[in-house]
Amino acid sequence: MPGKWQRIIRNRWVLRGGVVVILVILLWSARRPILRSIGDLLIRTDQLHHADALYVLGGSPIDRTLEGMELVREGYAPAITFTGESPNEILQLFGIDSSEAALGERVAMISGFDSTRIQLLKRGTSTFEEAEAVHDRTLALHQDTIIVVTTEFHTRRVGQVFRKAMTGSGITVIVHAAHSMHYDADHWWHSEEGLLMVNNEYMKLMYYAIKH
Question: Given this model, what pLDDT does residue 26 score?
């Protein structure tokens, strides 16, 4: 009898081990669509239509500014408002106005964009603070529809933060994605930078869900 029970127990462990191996093989085979889906969950954009104002959020000034300029040229908004006050310490050493809003303006000017269609909102060191600043300005200017441009893998969080900030104001928020030169949505897990971007964005999503 002891030998019989030992065989039964051994067979069960062999069966469980086989199941685990099969699951690992299946997960490995499906890793690409699974990882792609993890990245895709961060991206949530809205259908574009004409707005009273267009806000380019601070951070990634080249990617976001180029996209914002294109939208204005296509007639989706009359001008670009750059947000963000966080300074670039290296540029400060050279006496350059390095707030995120000013960096966006600099990219637009270098690109030949019409300076009369550029406005600055040097407020906000986080998405939450930028949303509050945009809320105040939008109400003051009696705007009811705005486009918010951010990097594609930030769009879900930015949409959540901005819509919550605009609750009760009657302001419609259209979140639009700027393609990042440093983020490959199809292969983000192939680079350390991509892994850090996705990891940090999920951490921020959880932080904002708890904090705000």
Answer: 46
CA 111 to chain CA mean position, Å: 24
Confirm whether 31 is domain-assigned: no
pLDDT digits (tens, 9 = 90+) for 17-55: 554 555 555 454 556 788 888 999 999 999 999 999 999
CA–CA distance, 130 with 207 (Å, rounded to integer): 16
On whether the pTM is more than 0.90, the answer is no
- Burial profile 117-152: b = 16 or more Cβ within 10 angstroms, e = fewer: bbbbbbbbeebbbbbbbbbebbeeeeeebbbbbbbb
Strand order across the 145-151 sheet: 118-121, 80-83, 53-56, 145-151, 172-178
Asked whether residue 24 is domain-assigned, the answer is no
In a domain, 122, yes or no: yes
Provide mean pLDDT across the span 160-183.
Answer: 94
**What are the tokens at 6?**
């030992």
**Which residues form the domain of 174?**
53-211
Please provide the DSSP assignment of 34-57 as one string: HHHHHHHTT---------SEEEEP
Instruction: Give ∠ CA 148-149-152 in degrees, rounded to 5.
Output: 125
Q: Is-contact 58 82, C-beta < 8 A? A: yes
